[in-house]
Amino acid sequence: MKRVLIVDDSIAVARQLEKIVNSDEGFEVVGQGRNGAEAIKLCQQEKPDILCMDVNMPVMDGLTALRNLMKLTPDLNVVMVTSLGGVGDKFTEALKLGAKDVLSKPFEKDSVLSMLRRL
Amino acid sequence: MAVKFFGQFLIGKSAVTRSELLRAIDLQEKTNLKFGELVVEMGLMNAVDIARVHAAQRTEDLQFGEMAVKLGIISESQAQQVLTRQKNSHLYIGEALVQIGALTKRELDTYLKEFKEDQLAYIVEKIEIPAGLPHKPIWEMVADLTYKMLTRVAGMSFRTGPCSVIDKLPNRPVIAEMGFSGSVSARYVLSVSESTRSLVAKAILDEDSVENEEVEVLDDSVKEFINIVCGNIAAKAAQLGHSIDITPPELRNGASGNLDVPENHTGLMFPIYLSDGEVFELTIFVPEN
Questions:
Q1: What number is the ipTM of this complex?
Q2: How many CB atoms lie within 10 A of CB B71?
């Protein structure tokens, strides 16, 4: 079973994503954070297989956290979560920094799960 | 179920890999020259001219070509020649993927057709905006995408009223708002009742009932809904050639907060009527030029 960490400042988004991830027997949500700094801390504690992380967050944004995480754990599968996924340059920036994919909102359950299965 | 970038669509279909897409983007970036790069390549301007334009752009919000014409460095017809060459030599992401061998031409045509079908749901329908405002197609698109997301994301059935110009926001208990900046700036405001907030929260949280949810979670759901709408607006605007950044969603205190449309702005209000008699409003604060 793949261990998934969710980091998003929105309680509503985190709840929605957790529900989708836990609906598949192949995945288990092992923790939740609310900002990029918590993402780095939780990744070291929980050692997840996959991190689903929002781009826009307080304290430390998702792209800054991604840049730091790629130095600490370059093999970590990171999926960035954003409502701006459809904006080409934002999508490209996330991939260039090392994200494996970008999850656009609103979520489609099947698309989310098939993306996670590809990692 | 979102406005997508073609490369993102192709990765979602497993038609190309992430590294192939990055290679194609790299080729695009090398091929698609900016106005300032092209104008030098065409021998119309030199490094000193470029620096003059950049310096002038710090004090006046004009695009590079417009500023170069204004400063008298190039003529309008030369600017037009540069734009035409830029347009004619533009390498699209699909063509770049063919050039690096990640897709065949035939596969590209098939996926482009599928992509257009996937994005059909986001084609903007006609909405009447009062005359005289700049960027009318953008405000039409903002209202239209809001209606589409209310149907698809929030699962609401509703009818819309005509757009009108207001000087005060309707007083509603929940007012969520976000800012747009970039080539188009504005403020997006959604004013809803408590029962409409519950409808939105049910949809966002995917729950049958939200009776026991804390107000913070309900409010967060409305903020998340407008975040999704505005993110998709930015993506659609990018397809229309505009670069829009969005600020995080915020809540305004409806009962005691300031409801006035800000000075030097036009308030465009779009009423939305639910079948049970509830009404809520989308308002866009458009800065006057």
A1: 0.85
A2: 14
The pLDDT, as a whole number, for residue B124 is: 64
Confidence category of residue B139, pLDDT binned at 50, 70, 90: very high
Residue closest to B180 by CA, chosen among B140, B136, B221, B139: B139
- Domain extent listing, chain A: 1-47+62-83+101-110
CB contact under 8 A, A106 and B152: yes
CATH of span A1-47+62-83+101-110: 3.40.50.2300
Q: Does A75 touch chain B (CB under 8 A)?
A: no
Q: Contact at 8 Å (CB) between A7 and A32?
A: yes
pLDDT in tens, A67-104: 999 999 999 999 999 887 777 778 889 999 999 999 98
Q: Is A35 on the interface with B (CB under 8 A)?
A: no
Residue to mutate among B224, B230, B244, with most A CBs inside 10 A, is: B224
Contact of B179 with chain A, judged by CB distance below 8 Å, is answered with: no
pLDDT of res. B254: 58
Are A84 and B236 inside 8 Å of each other by CB? no
- Is the peptide bond preceding residue B271 cis, with omega within 30 degrees of 0? no
